[in-house]
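Interim report, section 4.2 (structural modelling).
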Amino acid sequence: MAKQYDVLFRLLLIGDSGVGKTCLLCRFTDNEFHSSHISTIGVDFKMKTIEVDGIKVRIQIWDTAGQERYQTITKQYYRRAQGIFLVYDISSERSYQHIMKWVSDVDEYAPEGVQKILIGNKADEEQKRQVGREQGQQLAKEYGMDFYETSACTNLNIKESFTRLTELVLQAHRKELEGLRTRASNELALAELEEEEGKPEGPANSSKSCWC
Amino acid sequence: MEYEDKAGRPSKPPSPKQNVRKNLDFEPLSTTALILEDRPANLPAKPAEEAQKHRQQYEEMVVQAKKRELKEAQRRKKQLEERCRVEESIGNAVLTWNNEILPNWETMWCSRKVRDLWWQGIPPSVRGKVWSLAIGNELNITHELFDICLARAKERWRSLSTGGSELENEDAGFSAADREASLELIKLDISRTFPNLCIFQQGGPYHDMLHSILGAYTCYRPDVGYVQGMSFIAAVLILNLDTADAFIAFSNLLNKPCQMAFFRVDHGLMLTYFAAFEVFFEENLPKLFAHFKKNNLTPDIYLIDWIFTLYSKSLPLDLACRIWDVFCRDGEEFLFRTALGILKLFEDILTKMDFIHMAQFLTRLPEDLPAEELFASIATIQMQSRNKKWAQVLTALQKDSREMEKGSPALRH
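Predicted structure of the assembly:
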C-alpha cells in the first residue's frame, strides 16, 4: 500500500476572537467560506495532506478559541506545535496591537525553533481597513516573520500562506528529513517526536518541583 | 382498506384494450398513456403475440408499482401511528408533570416514578419550569435585581456607543478596555450562537433577550465577566424560559462548582476534574482509555467544548436538552457520565482511529446521533470507582493537588 504521507506535523492558529481563524482553516481544508461561523470553544481540528518539494506532508491544524480567558488552556497546546499562524484582522486595530502579546506567549510556551508566520486576514474588507499593509509588514519584520494579507472570503493567499509555513517547518527540520530520505520506508512524525521530548510537564511544574 | 378492496376484485374480464385502463383503477403516473394508446397509424401494427406480451409486461409493472405504493402507504401509516403514540405519551407526561409532580415538587421530585419519567425527557412545555425548580435559586436573585443589572448594562452600552467617558469606577481591576472588549465580544458571539437557527442573530426574535442576559450577567458578576461558551447556555435557557427566569437559572447554573471552575478558567481545578473523569474512564472503558493514552489524546481536547457549552454546541439541540434535563437533576456528575456514554457509544469506531481522526470526530460528533442509543449507553456507565462516588473521587483528587501545591511529598496515585 502506498504511504499516505512522509511527514506529519502540527500547525496552530492563534489570534484574537473573531479575526477569522476558523474561516481561514475552512477555506484551506474544505475550500468553503461561511460568513457566520459558530464560535470555537477550546480547540478544533482539521487535517490536510499537501505536497511540498516532492514530500507528502500531512498537517494537523489546531484551531484555538481566541478569547483571552481561554489562553490559560490554549497555551498548553503551543508546545505541541511545529508551526504557528499569528492572525489579526486588518479591520481591527486592537487585534493587531494584541499580536505583540501573542508573540510573547509563543516565545514563552512554544518549543524552541517553532516557525511563525503573521497573517492579516479579511483583506477583502478594504473600506473597513484600520491596519495598513505596511504596518503588518513592519511588525513581521521586527519579529523576523513572513507576512501575508489573506482573505478567506475571496480565497486570497490562503494556500500560499499554509504552504509557506509548511516549507518553513520542513526547512527547520532538514536534519530529520535527511534521515527520512535514507531510510525511505518510514514516515516521520515530527509531532510525536517533539511530544516525547516535551513530556516533563512544562516550565510551571518544573520550577515548582525545584523548591521542595 | 380501500386499496385492498379494489385490488381484491379484478372480476370483470379484462380484454378490450380501452377497458384495460379503466379496469386498473390505479394508474402509475408516467408510462400508462404511451403503452396503452393505439399505435400511431404510420407505424406497422404489432403482431398479436408481441402486443399480448407487452400488455402482460405492462400489467406486471403496474402490479409492482401498486405493491410499492401499498408498502409506502403502510410505512406512512406506521410512522403516523408512531408519531401519535409519541405525542400521546408526551401529552400524558405533560399531564403528569403539571397535575401531579409540579404541585407536589418537594415530596415527589426524587421519587422513583418521577426519576423514570425524567430520564425519558421532560416535555418541552414544562421543561423550563422543571429546570428552574431543579437548578434552584441559591443566589436569591429576584426579577428586580435582574432589572437593575440590565439597566446598568444598557447604560454601559450607551456610553460605549457614544464614546463617552466612564461613568463609574467601582469595579476596580477591570479596566475600561477590558470591559469594552468584553461587550464587543458578546456582540460578536451572539452572531455566532446557533447561527443556523437564525433566531439569535441581529434582527432575530431572541437577539435582544440573549444580549440582555449576557450583558446583565457581566454587571452581576464582573469578576467572572463574559466567557465564550456562555452564549450557548443562555440561548438554550431562553428557548425554554422567560428572560428574567432565564437569567436567574443562568446565574445559578454558572455558580455551580464545576461551571465556576471552567468559566473562571481555574486551570488547576479543571485538571482535577479531568483527572477524576479519567478515573471513571479507565474503570468503565479500559480498552479505549489505553488507546487514548497511547495516542496522547487528553480529555481537555474534547471535554472543554462539551463542558463549557453543556453539550449544546456538540449535540443536536433536542438531544442536548435531554442531557440538560438529567444534568439539572444529577448535577455535574452527569456531564462526565454523558461524556463516557458518548465515548462508549463510539468505542468501536474510535479504537480504529489515530489521534487526529479521534480529535476531529469528538469535536464534531455525528449530526444524526441517535438519542435512545446514547441514553442507553449512558445508562450502562457506572459512576462508581472502587466504592467511591464521583464527588468522593473528586474531593480526594482535589486534596492531593492541594498537597502537591504545598510541596508536600504526597504524590498522586
